[in-house]
Amino acid sequence: MKTKNLVTLPESKFLRVLCVKCRNEQVIFSKAATLVKCLKCGEVLAEPTGGEARVKGKILERFG
What we know:
Blueprint: E1 14-18, E2 25-29, E3 36-37, E4 44-47, E5 54-55, E6 58-63
Antiparallel strand pairs: 1-2, 1-6, 3-4, 4-5
């Protein structure tokens, strides 16, 4: 008999993203519903798309 997971794992994750303009590292949500900007220079790091956010910076690490 095959076992079945009773609780599904979430598909959303937190991402550590590097800003390509000022090299600042920032943690963002993978399914961000709003525009995410760099806290240092204001460059757009992620744009909402209705599902997963479109990440403009470089993804360094995925959490979760």
